[in-house]
Amino acid sequence: MKQVILLMLSVWMLSCSEEKTDFASLPSIPIRGEHLEEELIATTACDINVVGPSIWVADHRNPDTIASILDEKTGKIIQRFGTKGNGPAEFTNFRFLGKSLNGDTVFIGNIPNRVYTYVRAGQDKYELVKENKIFLKKFEFPMCMHRMENGYFVMNTLSGGRDFFILLNRDCREVKRFGVHPIKGMTADACDFIPFDGVMASFKNSFYYVTNKYGYIARYDISNNGETTLIWEKLLSEPQASISEANIQMRSSVNLDGFYGLAAGEDYVFATYSGIYYRAFIDQDDPSACTPKTLVVFDTKNGNVVGKYQIPNKSLDVSLSEDNERLYVFNIEPEVAIERFYVKDILNAK
Fold first, then answer.
1. In CATH, what number is assigned to the domain containing residue 289?
2. What's the pTM?
């Protein structure tokens, strides 16, 4: 019989040894943004990404069009992009993987199979120029992937061996696996990482990863020769779970829900954070009971919390403008909308 260990904070492998801030005791500063002029017609299952002067909205429940390209200022639809299906340039699991710094090149994934490269062909018009098949050494169950400025791709894995991330070259061929998941006690070679599902964001050659079911965030850097370095990792709340040789069982009645949206820039990382007991959506019979109304800002250098902010609407994804001056937040309640915040206003809020 497998020995089951109650997971306490002491078994978390955090790279930083500094004294931890009691995040729960930090005051939440109220902030309010402005909605884009045009009404957003979409479901609640959307990702948003700012590319140049536009916002890409990927609607995962739309039966027809995968993404809409909106004018960043007004929210007006400029172009519709992609269709569902298994044919060329069609998508079953659309993921925005990254862009060039000027937004002229966009990388789109159909995870876990292919990566498509699009280049700008006129104002907010993009044409497909390259398709790469993803080559992994063994079958995996990835959910997110991002491209670094130096051409490497990073993919998470929710099943397989002990390593948490997979590094791919610019041709989408596996280079190596790296990254230790943040919990000790799982001794089997084949581990179940489903409880570590989360969201990834990148800026230049750094990528950030947050988990949905726990308040865990980490930054890794990828060098030009493929070296991977863990820069920092943080934990906002003490996780509550049980572990065995290969599995993690969340204790939903006492575990606090984690992150839902993530955006990274030069100096700051922005994330929507729940901090609500995970069981709330069961007790309240409400799928959105744990949806965040908290925005957390970290500094990119050390991962320290810069601020904890209360936002007026239940929100999921976030995205940062290319000049790092505006933050866009995807609201799902009381209505589906995109809310614009100015970064300087967030940082100066009292």
1. 2.40.128.630
2. 0.90
Tell me how far apart the alpha carbons of residues 102 and 104 are, in angstroms, rounded to a whole number: 6
Read off the pLDDT of residues 210-250 as tens digits, 9 standing for 90 and up. 999 889 999 999 999 999 999 999 999 877 777 776 677 77
Q: For residue 221, give Cα distances in angstroms to 133, 155, 217, 224.
A: 24, 14, 14, 10
Whether residues 112 and 178 share a domain: the answer is: no
**What is the domain range of residue 279?**
5-14+21-36+136-348
Taking the CA atoms of residue 213, residue 322, residue 26 and residue 235 in that order, the dihedral angle to the nearest 10 degrees is 40
How many CA atoms lie less than 13 Å away from 129 in the CB half-sphere? Answer: 12
Q: Which long-range contacts (CB under 8 A, 24 or more apart) does 184-190 make?
A: 184/11, 184/12, 184/13, 185/5, 185/7, 185/11, 185/243, 186/162, 186/243, 186/244, 186/245, 186/246, 186/247, 186/248, 187/245, 187/246, 188/245, 188/246, 189/161, 189/162, 190/159, 190/160, 190/161, 190/246
Note if the bond before 63 is cis, omega within 30 degrees: no
Predicted confidence at residue 101, as pLDDT, reads: 72
Same domain? For 169 and 308 the reply is yes
